[in-house]
Target: 5,10-methylenetetrahydrofolate reductase
Amino acid sequence: MSLMQFRTPKKDMTSPLPAFLQGASIEVMPKTAEKIADFRAILPAGTQVFVAHIDGTDPADMQATVTRLAREGFAPVPHIPARVVPSQAALAEWIAAYRGAGATSALLLGGGLSTPRGPFADSMQMLDTGLFADFERLYVAGHPEGNRDIDPNGGEAEVLRALRWKQDFAQRTDAQMAVVTQFCFDAKPVIEWANRMQAVGLNLPIRIGLAGPAKLQTMLKFAIMCGVGPSLRVLQRRARDVTKLLVPYEPTDFITAIARHKAANPGFAIEAAHIFPLGGITASTDWLSRAKAA
Model:
């Protein structure tokens, strides 16, 4: 009997990450987008690029960014934060401008203001206007680690109520709806959250938020500012390791764990990744290119 017959078969070490990242989206702001000479040099054609509308952003800058991204061959997804919208007429104007510029999807948010500037306090009120019927897909926010603005006493009762309303809206209107989450750092609570959503009958597809490469200090600042919960411990442990203090954080371990779980459980609701480029757009697109080629 030859030695060949006693060799242990090689395990398939192929990572599921490259395939999982094929449909990854990324977020930009109009001011940071201006610094990119040509997005075609850093992103694959057709990538969904979400355009963040933070308080103080000129709607004209939002529209110009959406127009540019569509012209360069991407799928722009403008944010529309309810509490920033000054009137229903303004909402109708923004929607018409985005659709005219080539946007076929939008992300509807409550917005970070404590007091609405106009008639809308949340995305549900905007949906009730019927103005979004021409969009092919509508995204809404997800919060795997809770949201103290929505559930000030902790837990997720109000977050769940809002997601149920949005899922019911999708079913009664035939709207194509999906969830985009805040960025996270620990796969375990994210997987548990996604499974919990399915267990209570919430079946909207999910894009999981991840933080693009950045200095640890930058990451900690954004994590605390945005209310990241249990997975903040990942960064805190990293901060205690002096060998990693000067090495930029990368989301590879986090998103690989999600990709492996998805590969082992095809019915898992998380379908794609959404990148928040906290350390800069090119740092995130460079990481994405490397991770997809690994």
User: Anything to note?
Assistant: The beta strands are 25-28, 48-51, 75-81, 105-109, 137-142, 177-184, 206-211, 270-276.
